[in-house]
Prior knowledge:
By secondary structure, the chain is α/β, with parallel strands linked by helices. It has 2 domains: about 5-140, Rossmann fold (3-Layer(aba) Sandwich); about 150-435, L-fucose Isomerase, Chain A, domain 2, CATH 3.40.275.10. About 40% of the residues lie in helices and about 25% in strands. The strands form 3 sheets. It has a 6-stranded antiparallel beta barrel, surrounded by 4 helices. Helix 5 runs antiparallel to helix 12 (about 280-295), helix 5 packs across helix 14 (about 420-430) and helix 9 packs across helix 11. The radius of gyration is 25 Å and the shape is elongated.
Amino acid sequence: MQRITIGVVCLARTTFDWEEAGRIYARARENLKKIPEIDWVFEEELVIEVGDAQKAAARLQSRSVDGVVVISGTFHLGHLALIIDRVIRKPVLLWGFNELPYNGGKIRLNSVCGVNLNASNLYKAGNDRYSCIVADDIDAQWVDALRIKIALERAHFGLVGFRAHGFFNLAPDELRNFTEAGVLLDHYEIADMFGRDVADREAEEEESRVRSLFSCDRVADEQVRKVARLCAAVRRFIAANGLDATAVRCWPEYAAEYGIAPCAMMSILQSLGHILACEGDIEGSMSMLALRAAGAETPFLADLSQIDFKNNFALMWHCGVAPANLWDGTCERGLDTYFAGGKGVTADFVMKPGPVNVVRIDSARGRTRLFLAKGEAVPMEKLLKGTYAKVRFERHVSELVDTVTAAGVAHHVAMAYGDYMRTFEKFAKMQNWEIIRG
């Protein structure tokens, strides 16, 4: 979970029940402190006058907050939120408290109207990236959306080699990714990754891990040893370069130069928490990192590889790189060499059932879009090689395919177990990105 810093101010006006608003705000601060991995910067006194807002904005700016929560404790001056936004220039959550029981026929907070005022002012001032909530508790999805934004901005991304041969649609738009998401990319050679020195003892420990995870009777012992040494070498490579997410040109050079493709290694290291995207797909790795920042355990890349219109399902498949921990626990989880002239050495299993989300940060025609789809992975027999799940999506699979192809969404998508759709919707609003709904 990405650690972030959030500033909080509570606006009020003395013509309403500002004293009770202050008590509600104090309770809210105690509840906020319970949320993990957040450094809170509270303006503890109510912000009532323009001077209060100016001082609060300066204090929040000095603490380098990643986002700001502007609470309408009561209705208030319209200047206050605008002053804070002008200084902070970070994502804003406008939060209103539920109205209190009437007291003598007078509305006590009028907090909702304060949220409406601030939203209208921000929108008409050109800010499209705010979110709003009226509730007793903070919008947890907005908080996690902020985690995604900050995770992308702070992560160190590496591209090993280039995109896969002919996969033009996966080529990164590096400066757009930097401008819009703060992603700064470094390039490395393929041999730099697999050529790291590995001690024999370390290789033996990795080999024990490989054999404990997979049935290895369909691959040669030397191939198992190569997988093990590659696991150790890549862990060293990632650590030496301080990489948070890595995309690898995994074919055709890898098998030719090292002797095996890196698929099995990627399955193992992803199960240990590393973000590794195959085929040089940087925006795929960005999508995976975003899912992890939102709370997903081990996101992975998959292709929309088969559709069944009659039975309304899609096969989300890839050659054999999905995290080993996502095995369904029923089929045999093995290694195989079914491609690259016997040098593939891929993971081979059916993935577990459960709710899934599909996400793709995708650049096209000078803009960045966010593809989102929600579905359910259902049990299936082990009928083919690679790693795969049979998924029924919320929309009929025919509509899903029509959407993907009409919008030119890249053929790789990041997939994870769980439901993070609302979080990604709020993240898209923070980024001012178009949402393509699958």
